[in-house]
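We modelled the chain as a single entity of 322 amino acids. Its sequence is:
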Amino acid sequence: MKKVDREASDLEAHWTKIVEQHRAANREKFSYVPGSFKRDAWETFNPDKVLAALLEDKTSYFAHKDVLFAGLCAWAVCPRERRIIQQAMQMTVGRRLHAIEKDLPQEFGDTWMLADLLIRIRKIGPEFYDEMYFTVGGLSGLLAASRKSLLSKRLKAKAIGLPHLLSMMRIFHHQIATGDKEYPSLNKGSDLVHEISCEEIEPPSGRVIKEFWAKHKASIAYSYAASTIFTGEQRTLLDEMLDESASLRKHASLLPEWAGKAQYAADAILGKLPESRVLRKPAPRGPGLIPIEIPAPHFDQATADAIRSGFARKPRGKSKAK
């Protein structure tokens, strides 16, 4: 019995030495702050910190940036839905683990113990388990997330008002680009969405649109920017996000454009609105991020005239004092 205990202790010590050697080798290679995933992405989603990590040139530990990208996509669609953002990150963890483990039988045959050790150290690394795997709930957390209704359905349900808000952003963008002295405002813009809509489903009243705005204002610059980036014929990055098919592996090259255009939307469109509380805080800014101009949307002359006329109207319910 003592011999078995001694062998087990020796094995544990050897294993600890291997793990520490791996950590030391990757300490300079990986760009992450220990504990940052739990603090800045899981417990409270901080888009500024997440964007900065994604735009960092250095690589990071297994699945780190993939999971952060999934969280950012979910936040852009429904910034107030913390549980949906978490589920998007959990499902991405599960997908990455499944992808790396699915070919094991062919590669390692029946040597499952050896395979498990090699995967944990060489292909995944202890950083993933220390920082992310147990933070998202481990195996039980991943199973619970995968058993719930499809994430894309939950995203679309929470983003039901987003198309109307994007219509309003296009109206704002158009009016500002004309250089007209009549500047857009949230109050007038919400009414215009209802008045000039060409959508098959009639949009809700201006009051309801403003309620949608309150839920999405923190990330509207990012959802608007995503709606202007095409990933294929008649498909935008926003479509991919709503279908839960956006991923860093497919769309990493679009990240700088997405963030740059979001910054442009925040500065050149939302920044021109007179309402001081139109955004709870500025859009996330990555380090060294340069705004990328979004071409102004085109409206036919009749619609353009209606937009200008709508912003020129005096606010309802206000009259000169007698």
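As a brief sanity check on the tokenised model: The longest helix spans residues 2-26. The chain is about 65% helix and 0% strand.
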